[in-house]
UniProtKB/TrEMBL annotation:
This is VOC family protein. It comes from Agromyces bracchium. InterPro entries: Glyas_Bleomycin-R_OHBP_Dase, Glyas_Fos-R_dOase_dom, VOC_core. Gene3D superfamilies: 2,3-Dihydroxybiphenyl 1,2-Dioxygenase, domain 1. CDD domains: VOC_like. Pfam families: Glyoxalase. Residues 4-135 form the VOC domain. SUPFAM superfamilies: Glyoxalase/Bleomycin resistance protein/Dihydroxybiphenyl dioxygenase.
Length: 136
């Protein structure tokens, strides 16, 4: 068996704010932008990784989702504790400085972790945790 990661999903609360963050701040390319009944799914990813993407989606949509479930999910997202993604950079300090200068919400400055990684963290406009690890 041979598996690869094709896409991961992160909720957005404001598609335009999320698009601006992932496209303009992180520099990801927009691969798809689909609307349906007032909702929007935006697929983004690094230009040099065409086979891996993040799908930014409206939260709480789908069969079987009750209003109570949707409200609970929105509360978790609003607290910034729903989900996240780990990215990698060959120059963590430069990446951190670039994102901080662009106004991204800093959660953690670059630090050497006790488990051997150097990383930093930001939140996207929906509150999703974006951790960036030093590689190479």
């Amino acid at each position: 068996m041979s598996l690869t990661i094709h896409s991961s999903f992160l909720p957005h609360l404001d598609p335009e704010a999320s698009l601006a963050f992932y496209r303009d701040v992180l520099g990801f390319e927009v691969r798809n932008d689909v609307g349906y009944e007032g909702m929007r799914w935006i697929t983004v990813g690094p230009a040099d990784q065409a086979d891996t993407a993040i799908v930014l989606h409206p939260p709480g949509v789908g069969p079987g989702m009750t209003d109570d479930d949707r409200n609970a999910l929105l509360e978790i997202i609003a607290k910034g504790s729903y989900f996240g993604v780990n990215l990698a950079s060959t120059d963590l300090d430069e990446t951190f400085a670039t994102l901080e200068a662009a106004g991204a919400e800093v959660v953690q400055e670059p630090v050497d972790q006790p488990y051997g990684l150097r990383d930093c963290a930001f939140r996207d406009p929906a509150g999703n945790m974006i951790r960036i690890q030093q590689v190479g």
